Every structure is written in C-alpha cells, then in structure tokens.
Input
Amino acid sequence: MTGPILRVRDLTTRFRSRAGTVTVVDGVSFTLDRGEVLGLVGESGSGKSMTGFSLIGLVDEPGRVEPTASVELDGRELVGLAEPEMRALRGRRISMVFQDPMMTLNPVLSIGDQMGLVIAAHHRMSRADMATRAAEALTRVGIPEARARLDAYPHQFSGGMRQRVAIAIAILNHPAVIIADEPTTALDVSIQAQILVELQRLAREDGTAMIWISHDLATVSTVADRVAVMYAGRIVEHGPTTAVLSRPRHPYTRGLLDSLPSRGEPGHDLAQIPGAPPSLAALPPGCAFAPRCGHADAACGVAPPATEVGPRGWRCHHPLEEARR
Output
C-alpha cells in the first residue's frame, strides 16, 4: 500500500478534573512514512508522551481522545476502535517503548515467559520457536548470552538492561510503527549508540517507522528524518530535522537549542528559557509561549495561525528569520 503508514489529524486528548477539562494534546496532526523517523521534542509536560499514549489507545478515564480526531494506521482508523480490535493491533502493527521499563516488565515472570506471551498474542508458534525469536530480539539490542537470559527475572537486570529488554519486546513482532518514549535515557553512551544504530537499521531495512519522543536534541539530530517541536500540547514547529535545528523559525525552538550545554561557553552560565511551562489547566490567551518569549507583543494575545512553507511549518506571529543562527 502506498502513502503514509500513519496519518494523524487533529489529535486532541482531554482529561476531566475538579478544576475543569484540561486539554493535554491539542489538535496534533502529522504523517509518518514507512521507514521514516519522526522526532517529537519539547520540555517535560509539553504533551509528547501523552501523544504517544493517545496514538496507541492507552488513555483511560478520566481522559479520552476526542472522537473528531483521526489516527489512520495503514489506512485503518484507530480512533473509536473497540478494545479487542485495538489489542490485536497493539504489539503487532504498532508498539511502544515506555520511559520506565518497569511499566513494561512483570516482576514475577521470567523474561522469556513475558516475551513468549507477546509473541503468542499474535502468532501461533511452538515454544522452541518463540524462544528462538525472543533470543534473537535480545541479541539485536545488545544483551549477551541471550538464550540463557530468557530464564532471568527483571530484578536480575540493571536499569539499562531492563530498558534493552523493553526495546526487544517492542520489536518482537516486527511492527509497522514503533513509538519510542525516551528509549535510551537509562543507557550509557556506548549502549545508547548501539541501540540507535539498531533502531535505524530497523527503519532502513524493515521499513519500520518510528516516533522518537525525546528532550535530547542531540540524539534527535542523529536519528530523526523530521522533527516536530511541542509546547503546551501543540506542535509549534515542524520540518526536516536539519532545517529545523539549524534554522529554527519559532522562538521556543531557538530557546531549546540555545539551552544545549554544547552551546555554552566555559566560565559562563548556561542559557535557559525564562520562566516555566504554563499549567495546562490555565493557559494564557493566544500564544501559550508568549509569557516566556522575548519577541512577544500585543499581537500574541491572539492564537497564531499555522504557517506552512514547503515541508516546514510553524505557529508564531513573529517567526525568526531564516538567516538567523
């Protein structure tokens, strides 16, 4: 089938609370091609992880994905899909690597049993064949003596090793889309590089598409083909990774880049974006970034329109000049 493997339109997720209804994902739209890696970046609380949960159908009450949203996986609409149908797709056609591997791993089951359950949920296979597939997945993410480690339990692994197991589980059934939520945070630099190479190989050779959720712009710059920058539940800038990170149009993107330690000067304080992200329960009128933005004026009291120029887009009344670096 031609066309994007994932097409997201007006994804909106809201939670009911005592303070009222809070919108945590606000009108997010993007497409994802086969074998493409989309980096989803922003500060903590910007809506990145909740976007991932919304895509894979893991938002429970009091939250809900608005029925006006559309998430098409290979042409099939996922919003409104009955849970048994969604469960048949989750882990087989679309999977997720969570920030905390203990959200994925059951402490009372061996690694082999847990991986076997994931395989058995979608395929009929002998125990020997399941063990072989599980060991191959562990080997791909750099776990030595993989066959023997199938009998181990999560508490017998370090935090980094558990994260590698979580990634192995996500790739077990060769999904079309993997949502990776800070997948290498718990790993040391050498293992992080190994995992990045392996996931890039998956995208290149198997055609697996990925959404790479991260606050680490350095990692995103090496792994992602395109990047989408989120703030207060919205995508405020998107485009090819090299273009966005070298010539940002939105002041928030510029602020994130200037905050990188690699851009600091010895003996000087690190640059930072002033203030703090707003409460989603009490967003300012107009542009949510305006209270922290040095370019804001009266026009920013009105929500900025979405501007699209070629493969790039942004939401800002005062976009930075292309030449500015």
Summary: Residues 184 and 255 are 23 Å apart (CA to CA).
